[in-house]
Design goal:
By secondary structure, the chain is α/β, with parallel strands linked by helices. It has two domains: 2-170, no CATH class; 200-582, Alpha/Beta hydrolase fold, catalytic domain (Rossmann fold). Helix content is 43%, strand content 16%. It has 22 helices and 13 strands. It has helices at 2-26, 55-64, 69-78, 80-91, 98-106, 108-117, 130-141, 149-154, 165-199, 273-281, 296-303, 315-333, 354-363, 369-375, 385-389, 423-427, 447-457, 490-495, 499-517, 530-536, 551-558, 573-582; strands at residues 41-46, 49-54, 121-123, 160-164, 218-231, 237-250, 256-262, 285-289, 342-352, 408-414, 434-439, 463-469, 542-546. The strands form two sheets. The protein has a nine-stranded mixed sheet with strand order 5-6-8-7-9-10-11-12-13, sandwiched between helices. The protein has a four-stranded mixed sheet with strand order 2-1-4-3. A hairpin with a 2-residue loop joins strand 1 and strand 2.
């Protein structure tokens, strides 16, 4: 009995210090009716125990700092520092547009997130808290003066809010294990890069241009307008009209190789204008298509209430078709007004985030509908890209081979989403040279799950893995210009420190890779090694490039099997057959 009580005390301590500061603290980032009830208590399930805490007690503590008798029970486990932090969380005010909140919470990605959170934040009747959270969130956002966490909790349309501490603790343990594994993986890559650098030192011809600096060609920009007929998910015919920004090198005597650059979700071609201009200054034609179903305009339409989603369900198909149509248009131009300026036989593709998916699928990765069908109901939801990948469950069956673009000779995927939409089976079908580039602090497409493990799945001989240590998901997107974000802001959480430095690395490595595998400039291999990456790295962002990695190296560094298997179980043939029959 004494041992049982000790174990319970330890779990209570973990719960109060972790749950009150982590779970409660993250409620404001959860995504119409006016509630019939106003929540009065939090009920906390911990094994056989059901504890309670009144919102009045929390509100008094937030306003005055007083820890009453009810709250004192929890405070004894949390400690003074944790309680001070909790008070700050409770006092903070948030101001959000209620239209934006409503649209996000009704979008497929928002509904998926709320449904997952609702499994452990429930109504008093132990019903998934999805609808209650959406209602309280929208109601709180209508306060023109902003709202606090207490206001959000009060808006829960039941007398009580049930927190499943057992599930929260399990998630906390898994998050801790994955975080530890990420740290050991990043360290293993750094050590392997140092070993490769020692084996193959930097030997660069001094006559070779510096890939970090602008090239010798003057750059001009043209914008093309493209239109094609397509279909919605309901099979209704519609027109897809989008533009392509074209960056051209002037004065080049030979036809220029082509680099397609695909932007990410909610972004635009302007976010990668810096890279397009850089490549063009070194003799490439850079073509940056707009993806209208997952770009900035789609995001703005969502926020203005003109759309119910920030990504159309067919976008996983439409994006590769945008690339194909862009190349078709460039091929036409190469025989007319741009004759002699474009080499349509030498094409590479670069993509970021959703554009990373676009780059890989057009380069030959196989869209893995059966794996999505099998795993999306149980996939890890702390990997936020899973929600986007799992939208594909709504797609009808289609010929995935049509997404491959045979004119593409090499691919670079920056912070791509890959784990479910491709899996080992899909990544293993890529045959062209491939570079996967990510940032170790990426909270949108986590580095290990979406880049490192998929790098292990590649079977192409020419492959590279790059880690920009401490960089976040948006560090490679230049939408914010050359301004580094302020400490403590959401921007720095998404980008990491000094994204301008990250983009310097992106320009150098993208150019070197494209020169070698698309431009047939083999001398640029001198820049595609660990020693060169280490030589240009500077604080705060370290840069590590490797071209080989094994599961054994990662397991040795971690000291045990990873919390997420290197290679997920193959999709059973019966599942594939059932999925095919369903569609």
């Amino acid at each position: 009995m004494k041992r049982w009580m000790t174990d319970r005390k330890r779990k209570l301590q973990q719960f109060v210090s972790g749950l009150c500061l982590t779970a409660l603290g993250t409620l404001p980032i959860m995504l119409e009716s006016i509630p019939v009830f106003s929540a009065e208590k939090l009920y906390i399930l911990l094994g056989p125990l059901k504890l309670s805490l009144s919102l009045d007690s929390l509100e008094t503590f937030a306003e005055t700092g007083e820890i009453d008798r009810e709250l004192r029970f929890y405070a004894q486990f949390a400690g003074d520092g944790a309680m001070t932090q909790l008070r700050r969380v409770l006092q903070r005010r948030f101001k959000l547009n209620p239209v934006v909140v409503s649209q996000l919470s009704y979008s497929p990605l928002g509904e998926d997130a709320l449904s997952q959170i609702g499994e452990f934040i429930q109504t008093e009747a132990r019903i998934n808290g999805f609808y209650a959270m959406r209602s309280s969130w929208i109601l709180a956002a209508t306060n023109s003066e902003g709202f606090t966490l207490i206001d959000l909790l009060r808006g829960f349309p039941t007398r009580g809010i049930l927190l499943d501490a057992g599930r929260l603790l399990a998630i906390q343990r898994l998050l801790t294990a994955v975080s530890d594994y990420t740290d050991t993986t990043v360290a293993a890559i750094a050590q392997h890069a140092l070993s490769e650098a020692t084996t193959v030192p930097v030997v660069i011809d001094p006559r070779l241009p510096n890939p970090r600096l602008p090239g010798p060609f003057k750059v001009t920009k043209r914008t093309l307008q493209l239109v094609r007929e397509t279909q919605t998910i309901e099979k209704a015919a519609t027109l897809r009209s989008f533009y392509v920004d074209l960056y051209l090198p002037e004065g080049k005597s030979q036809p220029a190789p082509i680099a397609i650059i695909s932007h990410g979700l909610g972004s635009t071609p302007a976010g990668f204008a810096y890279l397009g201009r850089h490549l063009a200054s070194h003799g490439f034609v850079a073509a940056l298509p707009e993806h209208i179903g997952s770009g900035a305009q789609q995001r703005e339409d969502l926020f203005r209430g003109l759309s119910g989603t920030n990504v159309t369900l067919t976008e996983f198909i439409e994006r590769p078709l945008d690339v194909k149509q862009t190349l078709d248009k460039l091929e036409q131009l190469s025989q007319s007004e741009l004759a002699g300026r474009l080499d349509i036989q030498r094409v590479g593709i670069i993509g970021h985030s959703f554009g990373g998916y676009t780059a890989l699928v057009t380069a030959g990765a196989t869209f893995n509908l059966a794996r999505l069908f099998q795993l999306c109901s149980t996939a890890l939801r702390f990997n936020s890209s899973v929600a986007l990948q799992c939208l594909n469950r709504e797609l009808p069956y289609f010929d995935v081979s049509l997404l491959k673009e045979p004119r593409i000779k090499a691919a670079i995927a920056m912070s791509p989403l890959t784990s479910l939409v491709f899996g080992p089976e899909g990544m293993g079908t890529i045959q062209v040279p491939t570079m996967i580039l990510g940032g170790s602090r990426d909270i949108v497409t986590p580095f290990v799950l979406e880049q490192v493990h998929p790098f292990l799945w590649l079977k192409t001989k020419e492959k590279y893995l790059v880690n920009i240590d401490l960089a976040g998901h948006t560090s490679m997107d230049g939408t914010g210009g050359d301004v580094n974000p302020e400490p403590g802001t959401m921007s720095i959480l998404l980008s990491g420190p000094e994204p301008t430095l990250a983009r310097e690395y992106v320009k150098a490595l993208n150019l070197a890779f494209m020169q070698v595998y698309v431009g047939d400039r083999l001398e640029y291999r001198a820049y595609l090694n660990a020693a060169y990456a280490l030589s240009i790295a500077r604080p705060p962002l370290q840069l590590h490039l490797i071209n080989s990695l094994t599961p054994e190296q990662l397991q040795t560094a971690h000291g045990s099997s990873p919390p997420i298997p290197f290679f997920p179980e193959p999709v059973p043939s019966a599942v594939v057959e059932r999925y095919t029959q369903r569609n």
